[in-house]
Design brief:
Largest sheet: 7 strands, mixed
CATH topology of the largest domain: Aspartate Aminotransferase, domain 2
Distance between the termini: 56 Å
Helix content: 25-40%
Number of helices: 12
Number of strands: 15
Shape: globular
Structural class: alpha/beta
Bound molecules: D-malate
Strand order of the largest sheet: 2-8-7-6-5-3-4
Radius of gyration: 21 Å
CATH class of the largest domain: Alpha Beta
Order of helices and strands: HEHHEHEHEEHEEHEEEHHHEEHEEEH
CATH architecture of the largest domain: 3-Layer(aba) Sandwich
Length: 397
């Protein structure tokens, strides 16, 4: 008899953002004239910047002739991109990461979801609560039930602290945080790195939102911490950095010498394993996409992508100010595209109320875990006109 993977019965039948999309669709069907403003899923709205468009057009032309035509790309991603990443994202910031430690992919969500395949079914996982659902769901799908929740609360500034009692082999950390918009200081991340090294544990660090950091001194990478190379893998994405949610590109850093252990206690290097996994199941981001990503690192690309992020940050500032003037407590927004709003009530009810009465889509905090109950997440990704309109509609409620 054909058996299914019964672990799928242990997760919610629909992914959080799919569930929201269904509710929005149903509302739209019932109210065809409603002008819906989407501040739910963190999907960018501003066009790709000119430097990226120009590079991608040129890459299309390369594919049009025999001389510069590209078929399958190199297994880790093109060297032209990996070398720029290593230089601009790490070495220029004083961080020792080599181009050979970078594997280009089609985005951080896939890498965050797939990385767990490298580890035994019995490894113990710890995640923040609230949390980006991908970390939890992918581990449950793989048969891991032992997932410790690290409360991220107002009291700890949404950054959990490692304790000697914590019994985990892998900890997922995401800063700037999705969903709370909180950032972690170097000292807070260093405490996790020290804990991981002392316990032969691994940090999976999701830095998808690092480009939104504006506060000086806030770390952009886990590798800014001492000795992080021996205990951390980092995920980066061009989705929010450069507007690639539809284009799809990201990368994962697996430092040389980073190990986990076999059942006999022998160290096994993770970088060759991840390369093996990716080359077996994935053929890389397209040449055109990687040329677009490379353009992010040109002086024009850096200035233009920064300007777009500044634009979203200003959206966040305007919404935060408006919500605070209405008496709501709001976290995030300054170094992150997300606002985490204490609505002091059921988060799905608040979501439905905003959708039905204001035609504004948000994300209910409960979708990110138990500790998200009582909150909604508002994303800053939209046009200025829509953000101002959403503010007016919320104020009018
Ligand atoms: C979010 O809204 O949390 C993200 O856009 C989802 C994602 O990146 O997969």
């Amino acid at each position: 008899m054909l058996h299914v993977n019964e672990n799928y019965a242990k997760i919610k039948p629909t992914y959080l953002f799919a569930e929201i999309a269904h509710r929005v669709e149903a509302h739209k069907k019932a109210n065809p004239d409603a002008k819906i403003i989407r501040l739910g899923i963190g999907d960018v709205t501003e066009p790709l910047c000119p430097a990226i468009i120009e590079a991608m057009h040129k890459a299309v032309d390369d594919e049009a002739g025999r001389t510069n035509f590209h078929g399958y790309g190199p297994e880790q991603g093109y060297a032209f991109l990996r070398e720029k990443i290593a230089k601009v994202d790490f070495q220029d910031r004083g961080i020792r990461i080599d181009a050979n430690e970078i594997l280009v992919s089609d985005g951080a969500k896939c890498d965050c979801g797939n990385i767990q395949e490298l580890f035994g079914e019995d490894v113990k996982i710890a995640v923040g609560d609230p949390v980006y659902p991908v970390y939890v769901d992918t581990n449950i799908m793989a048969g891991r039930q032992d997932i410790a929740l690290l409360p991220c609360t107002k009291e700890n500034g949404y950054v959990p602290v490692p304790t000697p009692e914590l019994d985990a082999d892998i900890v997922y950390l995401c800063y700037p945080n999705n969903p709370t918009g909180a950032v972690a200081t170097l000292e807070q991340l260093q405490a996790w790195v020290d804990w991981a090294n002392a316990n032969k544990a691994l940090i999976l660090f999701d830095a998808a939102y690092e480009a939104f950091i504006r506060t000086p001194g806030i770390p952009h990478s886990i590798y800014e911490c001492k000795n992080a190379r021996t205990c951390a893998i980092e995920f980066r994405s061009y989705s929010k950095t450069a507007g690639f949610t539809g284009i799809r590109c990201g990368y994962t850093v697996v430092p040389k010498g980073l190990v986990a252990y076999d059942q006999a206690g022998n160290p096994v290097e993770l970088r060759p394993m991840w390369t093996r996994r990716q080359t077996t199941k994935f053929n890389g981001a397209s040449y055109i996409t990687q040329r677009g990503a490379e353009a992010v690192y040109s002086p024009e690309g850096q200035a233009q992508t920064k300007a777009t992020i500044d634009f979203y940050l200003e959206n966040g500032r305007l919404m935060k100010e408006a919500l605070q003037s209405l008496g709501y407590q709001v976290t995030g927004g300054g170094d992150s595209p997300y606002l985490w709003v204490d609505v002091k009530g059921d988060s799905w009810e608040f979501f439905d109320m905003l959708l039905k009465k204001a035609n504004v889509v948000t994300t209910p905090g409960a979708g990110f875990g138990k500790a998200g109950e009582g909150y909604i997440r508002i994303s800053s990704f939209n046009s200025r006109a829509n953000v101002l309109e959403a503010i007016e509609r919320i104020k009018a409620l």
